Amino acid sequence: MPSPQLSGAAGVARRLIHLRRWLVKRRRKGQVTDLLRALEALDSTLAVALRGVRRRGGMRFDGDLNAARTHLKAMLDQSPDLIVRSFWLGKGWRWPALIAFVDGLSDNEMIDQDTVQRLMDAPGEDPPTPTDVFDAARTQLITAGHLTTTAVWSKIETKVLSGNAAVFVAGNASVILVDTVKYPARAIPATNIEPAVRGPQEAFNEVGLTHMDQLRRWIRSPLLHFDQHTVGVISHTPIMVAYLDGIVNQDLLARVIDRVEGVNRDVITRANDLAEYLVEHRFSLFPQYRLSDRVDWVARELAQGKIAILVDNDPFSVLLPMTLMDFYKTSQDYSVSWWDGTLVRIIRLVALLLGLYLMPLYIALTSVNLNLMPTMLLLTIDGSRAGVPFPPVAEVVIMYVIIEILREAANRLPKELAVTLGTVGAVVVGTAIVRAGIVDDVMIVSATLTALGLFTTPSFEMSTPWRWLFWVMVIGAYALGVFGILLVTVGIVAYLAGLEPFGIPYLTPFGPLRTQSWADAWIRAPMPNLLRRPTSARPEIRQAASSNTPPDRFHLRPPKGSSTP
Amino acid sequence: MMRNRRKLVLTALLGALMLSGCADNRPLNHRALVLGLGFAPAPHGQISMIFQIPTLTGLARPSMGNSKSGSSPTTFILTGSGPTAARAFTHAQADINKDLYLGQLQTLILSTHLSASQFRNIADTLIRMGTLDKTAYAMATSAPVQKVLTAKSQTTSLAPLYVSTGFWCAHCQVVDLKRQMWDVEQAQFAPARNLWLPLIKPIGVGFQIQSVVFYQGNRVARILSHHQTSVLGYVLGRTSKGTIDLSWHGQSVSVDSLQAKPRLSAEWKRSRLYLGVNLAVTGNVYSFPIPLSVQPHLAWLTKAVKHELTVQCRQLLQSLGRQGLDPFSWGNAYVWQHPHALKRWLDAYRHAVWKVTAHVQLRQLGDTT
Amino acid sequence: MRETTRHISPLQYAILESTAFMGIGIFEFPRLLVLQAGNDAWWGLIADWAMAFVEAWLLLKVAMVDPEETLLGKTRRIWPGPAYWAFGLADTLVQLILPVVALTQFTYVIVTFFLPDTSPWIIELVVTAVSAYITWWDLPALVRTIQVVYIPIMAVSIAMLILLVPHVADTYALWPSGHLRLYPTMLGALHTFYIFVGFEAIPLFWPYVRRQDQPRARRYTYWMLALSCLFYAAVLAATLGTENPWYLIHLEWPGVSALRLISVVGLLIDKLGVLAVAFWGILSLFFISVRFWSLAHALLPMLRQRTLAWYRGVILGLALAVFSIALLVPNVQVSDRWSAQAVPFVLLFIFVYPLALLATVAWRRHHPQPQRQPPRIEDGEGRPARH
């Protein structure tokens, strides 16, 4: 049974959370911060006033350094990375103090020079009151940029474990939390997952703060907002909901924030853990969010009115809402000429169609609807199949399974070995299997095209549904031929049409038809012609640019007075 | 969880059902691809149905090209006979362990010796075959059908493809005599019931398609000679590479690449039918025996070609008309507008007055040798 | 956001209207027209066009009587009591027969040209299942599916008709007769009017169009109808020109027979025309789906249910019913007979019903009388709610 005080506090907290959400929705976030600061100051004053009255060993630090040391040591069970050090504050004061931090997560230089040394060397002779010492430490001595104060143990623990240093002053019920966070982090890497021949190459690393800095460099506007949340009851994983205020759809934002706050799990370690909580159609075959580690791409999607969720410790941020078409766009499409961008997108479409339909069509046209195929081609296939003991469907299964195995094996091996494996797969297995008479030559061609076709999908997560649906297509072709393929196609379209992640039709801009958004769909129009944001994310402001006519032509003339040789 | 399990069971059921519905899934090597299909009369009033099916050598041939010409045959012949075409098909099917598949049929060869009722029965059977390729080329032959279907070709790797390769390109032949099974079927229901088909003849190595057979009421009414077929080509606008040889003061002059576009007109005058064919003819003259200025001899040539064509065309059309043979489907057009006047039309057509005019335009290309 | 996706755009509305009738007659057209009207077939088609436009005008008038209300809602308000039930049941019966006819027609086309050894019931089952599946997520998803597939199908169909032009040999048949025979022409027109059956769905979908979009939806409907009329005219020309008229009337599916002549060299599938037949089949599939939705829409208010679970239950029940009835059809001739017998009833239904409804509304407007407010359908719009 919770105590009445706890229930009361929980009620107050709930009301505060509601108040905060309400204010966030009405864009009065500044007022929230002011309110929280005032409450914190009030809390600290009350803690000092009630010192000694409160029960010892409770949820708050009460100024007793021994108790604090015991609490801290008990927290991590003598873990060697937690450093707790006692020292005298002030040369003349010799006031007992304690500092706690986690070795490896904190910047040693900041702790040594900006905190401990400054506190130990504090001038002054007369013994002051604990409050004076505390105030002096906070306002004059510690030179680190960011300080907060608290007395609540849960907050102190979380902060220390995330790299802050906690400074305890004997007799004072408040603790100074110095932002000394310095994670061991990778340097800003180039993206490997979404490579581009041209254009920006920068990717996120694992540090949440760096994510924000990187994005700020791309969008230097106060409109870029980061809403910080913590998910994971145990992991306390910080996440940032990034969006462009005024452009993002407010309903969408509120819904995403609601869902983020509704995540209740002990440990969240990666972006995908969180993203799977956010979508409505959890068993859907098709991805409803995109994970990207490209900073430029995230910035571009934010500019389209989408939302990015940056998760600490994961270089991939969650982008949503997404439509089917969004998974076929890449950063490079915009880094090259629009002709090139359009061409590669059309190739992606053709590759998808080839990958999905070629082998099922092979089955349908060689087993069920033989009358649809040109005679010469049919005779060629018939000739090449002479002596093959398996029906076309078995050939397809054999080849496709081989491709998938080779693919998975190549993924698991180091890069250098993967190349060898590719060669082995392509040359040795391919040639040998035809020689052995297990499959025919035409099947090798179509299997290769299928594999290439399905893997040209720029977004990794989008190739998976098609690889699954490929098998459904094979069953349709096997049973009912071309008609079966058509039925499966209609079924897939119906399924896609029924998907509405975050209330946005997944098939936009083709169903519902939004011809204005076609300029950046399977074709990529020149940048000055992309005047409006796509309707898919329902942005508050559709217009992204004002109309721009091509500049007037002019002719360069030689400067006056110059003479030609 | 329960819902997912239900979905899974439903999917499995649907998958199983789809797999059970694969009665039509018969892989390529379980089917006998019929490339040529012939019909000929058999003893005792029966119909003989002859199937031309590629052998393994024949199947390997298109992918290998002509370089490897082995001695083994590229096709084999399967024959079935019966009182009806359907029965003949059944008998043939009983003699082979593969499914006789007509969806890739290239040529349909009809013997000119088939009786009208046999012809009708064959057409009826073919109409009812759902997967039969309606675009297969239809031809008649006065030679034994089996001989046509076993003849070899020098120009095509697989003999059955000779016809389809030839008819695929309309301008590759002197006269485009392409007729498809569709035309045979259609003729069964047209009021005038006229049909013409090209006549195929096997020669040493290869084929000759230079004549036309006219059917009336499914009976062979007339076989045109090679020359008459060329003339028919002009009036039907199907000639691409016509040639007329003329004599100028004892020396031969030839006009080549003759093409004609017909314009038809029909008129009733005092219950008499006047049928007009106006030909717009073009052609090339490469050389002339005597180096004269262009204009006079071109005028002479034009006049001569015009005369030659109009006379020959009129003669052919008149003789066809007297037999009630109607290559233009004029009768169908008339009966469409006058549904109950078929007999009147047929009478009038037999006694129609034909007027053939030609507008000839020749180009002197000069001697380039 | 949910609210916006529940609505359909004017274009979607017009496409939905088009699929509501195109799937049933596309295969059989224009056999009956040429059989009855002979060389007056063109005049017969024009008469059908005129009737279709009058019908569309009438039904749009009905739709606008109370733009936010569905057809059943209107009926209930104008003729409460037995008339509403009678209308509802008649509507249900007619709408149950139409998908059966479309299903059997399409099944036998597939069996004849694609899968000769497959049992028709398997195809009927699969087509019914896919039709029900398309309808699973209610109207907006259904419309999106139709929109995505319908436009390419029509583009392919038009391309196929263009490819048929070189095959037109009987040009004489393209000319309409100079001597109009009224009786056979009207007979042909009446028997062929099944190509526009399904148009009575106009008021059914109307409340789903946003109020501000409704004038545009009305315009689009007329345009789509005009395009459909042109499409049928092109089919008539293509079939008359490629098949002679006497052969045409012997063919069960003249359009399919004409398409089989198309062969494009250089493609993986060279018999594109045969493939187009399967595409036309998808139109039949959509026709059945739209009927399922319409029927569910008619039945749910009668059952006083509006949840998605009930909606899906009704869809499943209807699919089972249509499949079971289709099993009773032994061959395509029986299906033809059924459609021939259903056409007069449907005509009565789609002309007399709107006229009577409009007359009642007009009469009441001029003779206002105090009367009790009839109960409205639970959800106010009679459509099943989503989650």
List keywords for this structure.
heterotrimer; B: 369 residues; 5-stranded mixed β-sheet; 11 helices; 14 strands; 32% strand; globular; C: 387 residues; mainly alpha; 16 helices; 71% helix; disordered N terminus
In brief:
Chain A is α+β, with helices and mostly antiparallel strands and 565 residues long. Chain A is built from 17 helices and ten strands.
Largest interface: A-C, 35 and 42 residues
Fraction of residues in β-strands of chain C: under 5%
- Return residue spans of chain A where pLDDT drops below 50 for at least 5 consecutive residues: 1-6
Count of strand segments of chain A: 10
- Backbone shape of chain A: elongated
Which residues of chain C sit in consecutive blocks of at least 5 with pLDDT less than 50?
1-5, 373-387
Strand order of the largest sheet of chain A: 1-2-4-5-3
Find the count of extended strands of chain C (DSSP E, 2+ residues). 0
Approximate helicity band of chain A: 40-55%
Radius of gyration of chain C, in Å, reads 21 Å
Shape of chain C: globular
Briefly note the structural class of the backbone of chain A. Answer: alpha+beta
Distance between the termini of chain C: 14 Å
Layout of helices and strands:
The complex is a heterotrimer of chains A (about 575), B (about 375) and C (about 375).
Chain A: H1 4-25, H2 29-49, H3 65-76, E1 82-89, E2 95-102, H4 108-120, H5 130-141, E3 147-150, H6 153-161, E4 165-169, E5 175-178, H7 208-218, E6 224-231, E7 237-244, H8 250-261, H9 271-278, E8 290-292, H10 295-303, E9 307-311, E10 317-320, H11 332-335, H12 338-368, H13 375-384, H14 392-412, H15 415-435, H16 441-455, H17 460-498
Antiparallel strand pairs in A: 1-2, 2-4, 3-5, 4-5, 6-7, 7-9, 8-10, 9-10
Helix pairs in contact in A: 7-10, 12-16, 12-17, 14-15, 14-16
Chain B: H1 2-20, E1 31-33, E2 36-42, E3 46-54, H2 56-64, E4 75-82, H3 85-94, E5 99-101, E6 107-111, H4 116-127, E7 137-141, H5 145-150, H6 161-168, H7 181-187, E8 194-203, E9 206-216, E10 219-223, H8 226-236, E11 242-248, E12 251-269, E13 272-285, H9 294-322, H10 330-337, H11 342-350, E14 353-364
Chain C: H1 2-6, H2 10-25, H3 31-37, H4 41-63, H5 71-78, H6 82-113, H7 120-134, H8 138-163, H9 182-192, H10 202-205, H11 214-242, H12 245-248, H13 254-259, H14 272-303, H15 308-327, H16 332-366
Helix pairs in contact in C: 2-8, 2-11, 2-14, 3-4, 3-9, 4-9, 4-11, 4-16, 6-7, 6-14, 6-15, 6-16, 7-14, 7-15, 8-14, 14-15
